[in-house]
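Dig into what follows:

_____
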Amino acid sequence: MPGSNAIRGARVGSGPMGEKDHGARAERIQISYWDALGNETIRYFAADVSTDEIPEQIDSPTTGLPAGRDRENPPQLLKNEPYKTHLAYVKERRTPEEADELLEAALQKLRARRGTAKSV
């Protein structure tokens, strides 16, 4: 067939087509994690990794809930604090008296800039 590409669809550089063994496979261990809804998530780790480096908890990819290794006692979702606005954070840092002083100072500055400030 003129103009055809002989290697079309072939994986260049991967070795013979249909080759099953692409190298030695590293030993690995399988760890199961369970979320509060009973969903299992399996993670694989290298066999030579110490148990201290394997996480006790992960986020479940299906539910987003925390998942732990103990099937009978999965971790519970911690209660999230409600979203705070900028004003809520400011009110935590300032007393009402400080807020009144800051507001009055800002208004005086604005009035002076506009030329409507009252002489005291």
